[in-house]
Design the sequence.
């Protein structure tokens, strides 16, 4: 079972990686958000032009590339939250609670509408 200490350890590893390269100068919140979005789009690109019936094959055949892009997104999440003092663990738990309120099981089960359309 992972816990908050593992998350903080990963943030420290990212910080060390960036400090060694003197990258803080490039890591304002806008550019970190752009980086996160770019990496999410690199993940999306792996599925581009694939039909629904091809998605399982993409998952299998490009698993390493997918894992790399997900990790790139995670890198930016860790870096953003570390530099701009957001407790990612608490923020995630808080947002999960909000989502539980937005998507009550009796309304959201088997329904993928956004919460304001439930
Ligand atoms: Mg990437």
Sequence:
């Amino acid at each position: 079972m992972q816990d908050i200490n593992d998350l903080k350890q990963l943030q420290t590893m990212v910080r060390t990686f960036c400090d060694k390269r003197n990258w803080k100068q490039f890591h304002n919140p806008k550019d970190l958000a752009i980086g996160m979005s770019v990496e999410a789009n690199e993940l999306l690109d792996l599925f581009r032009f694939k039909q629904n019936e091809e998605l399982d094959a993409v998952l299998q055949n490009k698993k390493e590339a997918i894992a790399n892009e997900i990790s790139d997104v995670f890198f930016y999440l860790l870096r953003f939250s570390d530099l701009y003092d957001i407790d990612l663990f608490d923020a995630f738990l808080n947002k999960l609670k909000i989502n539980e309120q937005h998507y009550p099981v009796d309304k959201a089960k088997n329904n993928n509408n956004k919460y304001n359309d439930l």
Q: What stands out?
A: The mean pLDDT is 95. The radius of gyration is 17 Å.
